[in-house]
Amino acid sequence: MGSNVFGTPVTVATLRAMPEYQGKNSITQQDRAKVALEKANAESKAVDARNYVEKLQCRFGDDVVYTEIREAGHYDQAERVGIWQALDNKLSNGRLVNKACEQGGYISGSIGNTSKPVFEAIMTLPKPK
After folding, report:
1. Which domain of life is it from (predicted)?
2. How many Å is the maximal CA-CA distance in the chain?
3. Which of 17, 23, 36, 54 is 20 to 30 Å from 65 at the Cα level?
């Protein structure tokens, strides 16, 4: 699991163990996303995530934000060897606001010029057709 994944993942098995999902024929990605959002602060996940991000400030500096939307597993692919260097280059040229839009998904990141800016986001995608 990546170093930026916090807490226990919310899986189908997680939901099956919950009373409100027992006996439900199908558990969807939307069900898992809903529960994950509800449990965002469980197991000190939010605190761990914030601590992780604050430690990144030493690596990337102040007043930089970057957003990117890609398919699942994009950054894990062997042919993407240079992807982390490319992201580092983009962060090095970062701005206070960055936006990305691709395949119906949209994300916007902004960061203030305070000494410890905090960026929190919930990203949604349109329902499949």
Report:
1. Eukaryota
2. 51
3. 36
